[in-house]
Amino acid sequence: MRYITPRKAAQGLGSSHTGTSDHWFMTVSACALALLTPAFLLVIGSAIGLPHADLVAYFGRPYPAIITSLFIIVGMVHFIKGTRIMIDDYFQHTARKVAIIVSVIFSWAVIASAVFALAKMTFVTLAI
Amino acid sequence: MADVNRGNRPLSPHLQVYKLPLAAVTSILTRITGHALVAGILLLVWWLVAAVSGPGAFAVADWVVRSWLGFLILTGSTWALWYHTLAGIRHLFYDAGYGMEIEQAKQSSRAIIFGSVVLTLLSLILFFIF
C-alpha cells in the first residue's frame, strides 16, 4: 500500500527532476523576450547602415548595449532549453548527447562573442 | 492473438496522408521559427564581432548584412521572431488554461499568422523610413 496521496505523486519536479524548473525558466524568459523583442528590433534597425565609427559609438551607448546584450544572453539560454526539447524528441542515445553538447557550447560561444564585441565597443567609445 | 480484430481498429493519423489542422501547422512552425532564428543571430553577432575586429573584417560583414542575402536573412528572421513571439505568448495563455477549444485554437492560429506578417511589414516600413 502506498502511503502518499495522488496529489503528492503528481506534484514536485516530475520524473526527470528538471521538467518543472525548465518549464518555469522558459515561461520567465519568454516574458522577458516578449518585452525585449520590439526594443531589440528597433536597436538593430537603427544600427544597420551606420558607418563603422558611428556603429561602434552607437553600441557604446547604454541603451543599445544593454538591450542587445540582454536579448542575446536571455535569447540564447532560451535557445539552449528550446533545442533541448527538440533534441529529446528527435534524437536518441549518443546522438542525443552529442547534439545537447553542441547546442550548449555553440550557444555560449555566441553569447561570449556578442558580449565581448559590445564590451569592446563600450570601452572604445569611453576612450575617445 | 488469433481472434484480434485486425480490420476495424482506429488508425493513428499518418503524417504523409493526414492533412495537418491549422493549429498543428502553427504549433510546429513555433519550433521551426525558434530554431531558424539562429541564422539571423549568427549574422548579427558576426557583424558585431567584425566591428571590433578591424575595418577589413567590418567591411566584409557589413557588405553581407546590407546585401540582398543579408536582407533576405534579416527579413526572414524578423518574421520568424515576430511569429515565435506571438506563438510563445499563445503558449503562455495555453499554460494558464485559456484558448484550448478547437475553434479558439483556429482563431489564435489565424491571428498569429496574420499578426506576424503585419508586424514584419510594419518593422520593414519603420526600417526604411527611419
Question: Can you describe this structure in just a few lines?
Answer:
The complex is a heterodimer of chains A (128) and B (130). With 128 residues, chain A is mainly α.
Produce the secondary structure layout.
The complex is a heterodimer of chains A (about 130) and B (about 130).
Chain A: H1 6-10, H2 19-47, H3 52-59, H4 62-90, H5 93-127
Helix pairs in contact in A: 2-4, 4-5
Chain B: H1 22-51, H2 55-66, H3 68-95, H4 102-129
GO molecular function (chain A): metal ion binding
Pfam family, one (chain A): Sdh_cyt
Main location (chain A): membrane
Model description:
- With 128 residues, chain A is an all-alpha fold.
- Chain A has a single domain, classed as 3 helical TM bundles of succinate and fumarate reductases (Up-down Bundle).
- Chain A has helices at 6-10, 19-47, 52-59, 62-90, 93-127.
- In chain A, helix 4 (62-90) packs antiparallel against helix 5.
- Chain A is elongated and about 75 Å long.
- The longest helix of chain B is centred in the N-terminal third of the chain and has 30 residues, at 22-51.
- In chain B, 27% of the residues are buried.
- The model of chain B has no long low-confidence stretch (mean pLDDT 91).
- Chain B has a domain at 22-36 and 68-129: Fumarate reductase/succinate dehydrogenase, transmembrane subunit (3 helical TM bundles of succinate and fumarate reductases).
- Chain B starts with 21 loop residues before the first helix and ends with a helix.
- Chain B is mainly α.
- Chain B is 75% helix and 0% strand.
- The A-B interface holds A 27, 30-31, 33-34, 37, 41-42, 44-46, 48-49, 52, 55-56, 59, 68, 72, 75-76, 79, 82-83, 86, 110, 113-114, 116-118, 120-121, 124 and B 31, 34-35, 37-38, 41-42, 44-45, 48-49, 51-52, 55, 58, 62, 65-66, 74, 78, 81-82, 85, 88-89, 91-92, 95, 123, 126-127, 130.
